[in-house]
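Please study the protein below:
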Amino acid sequence: MDVVDAWERYAQGRTPRREANASGARTWLNWTQYPDHGPDESILGDLQGRTVLELGCGTGCNLAHLSTLGATCTGVDIAPSQHGKAVARWGHLPGLTFHTAEVTDYLSHTEGPFDVVLSIFGPVWFTDPEQLLPLVRKRLSPGGVLAFSHKPPTAGTQPVGQLREAKAVTRWDYTPEEWSALLASSGYSDIKAEVISPPEGKDVGTLLVRAYA
């Protein structure tokens, strides 16, 4: 329960997402830690009619956007309070459901494949990849895509660290090369791992990884 409590405390301190972005859109997907920066959902391909699972969906804002593009979306988050926030804000959208669960438990017990699995500063960063990556691959449909992002490790960072806001949570800080090797060893192909440059005036970029089943 320490991990659940840690993420619940983290969730309580988060500021609600803006009602609209800089372009005036009311739903959008953002891979980086900076607003209105970096690629959008197009790196996932055509989403019409596809099934999408987000690990660590939070209040559901990313999934809500994918739902408006015609995807059938499922979100999983470990913090119980996030479910209520997600339903309150996005429950009116069709093809969008939310669950409270630890991701490896959810992946181990859910049935049916997903065409897309994504994690944006989420559980892929905070779960043992040797356990998580094979579980995700088993739930991906043939040719399905796993995409995730998090901050890149800084000089001197150990591969396994601690999340500053939630001390009970372990973080896996890997380079693009290390993620590529881990994904390949779990049976993924067409792997692309890169660091997106930060916007002007910022020092830290965003690591973005995409791989196919």
